[in-house]
Design brief:
The protein has one domain. The protein is 52% helix and 0% strand. α2 packs antiparallel against α3. The radius of gyration is 14 Å and the shape is globular.
């Protein structure tokens, strides 16, 4: 695991809340292509070092139980409806 191989990133990862870890994990796993997942893994280490506790461009994990999904999350992530390019 990339985080484990970087002592600084690992120390920061261990300080995250379980929800914060879950959002990074969901963000990585949500990628359809292996190349995108790999880029997100590298970016996770970078964002941890930047002081982020959640993925910066992630709308939020749909697995959160402390709040309902937003309309965007419901439409795109749950219902699978995406706008088509004009």
């Amino acid at each position: 695991m990339a985080v484990q191989s970087d002592p600084e990133a690992l120390a920061l990862w261990e300080k995250l809340t379980p929800l914060g870890r879950n959002e990074f994990i969901c963000w990585v796993e949500d990628a359809k292509r292996a190349a995108t997942r790999q880029r997100r893994i590298v970016r996770t280490c970078e964002e941890l070092k930047e002081g982020k506790t959640r993925p910066s461009c992630w709308a939020g994990c749909i697995h959160r139980t402390d709040k309902p999904p937003s309309r965007w999350q419901q439409a795109v992530l749950i219902d699978g409806k995406r706008k088509k390019a004009p």
